[in-house]
Amino acid sequence: KKVPVITIDGPSGSGKGTICQLLAARLGYHYLDSGALYRLLALAAKRHGVAFDNVESLAVLAAHMDISFRTQDNGDAPRVMLEGEDVSSLIRTESVGTEASLVAAFPEVRTALLQRQRAFAVMPGLVADGRDMGTVVFTDADAKIFLTASPEERAERRYNQLIDKGESVSLAALVERVRKRDERDMNRKVSPMVPAANAILLDSTGMSIDEVLQKVVDHVTANG
Ligand code: C5P
């Protein structure tokens, strides 16, 4: 029997992460944060002294790095482990985000991560969060959603997250960085961030988390 898969793709700050986790919890499905894999690779590369343009070594690292996700019983986001160490906070910085988008532009790196991502599709089902979940990794997903929000609102959400974590950033600089990262993710040759042909587009600008979740649940139910 085929494992049910729901994909939610879109730019950072669209609310994907939160929505995917809530949806996975509601359905009792597994959750794949594919962005975390690219972030882990960037961190692992730094730690192993692999340069961000050393494609061959990056691909080897992508295929073999020792990573795992530790699900939390209290419903909190899964802890992200690299070589047995909890790096959940370390991978969430702006600089690791930028580095992740650099290594993610290499086709060899994306290929090396393909099977690792597909291995998350196990019963009772999977909610997959990323940029190319619906277009490349899980092309035959049961429901595909492309979630966006205006760059200003996405930068503002990110700003609030960073301030909560005690990072000092300027909102203007963040808007600029959000635009740059989107541009790189949308214009790269392999797996650019585009909606799958059969995805529904959902713009979360001005919507609450509950409202977005309800729309997503409606769509998933209609396709289940
Ligand atoms: O979603 P998150 O901000 O954690 O992703 C970090 C970076 O990883 C993105 O900017 C993107 O370049 C890359 N990524 C990707 N494909 C995915 C998920 C993330 O290229 N499926």
TrEMBL record:
Keyword annotations of the record: ATP-binding, Cytoplasm, Kinase, Nucleotide-binding, Transferase
Family of this protein: Belongs to the cytidylate kinase family. Type 1 subfamily.
Protein name in UniProt: Cytidylate kinase
Superkingdom classification of source: Bacteria
EC numbers: 2.7.4.25
Origin species: Porticoccus litoralis
Keyword Endoplasmic reticulum carried by entry: no
Catalytic activity: CMP + ATP = CDP + ADP; dCMP + ATP = dCDP + ADP
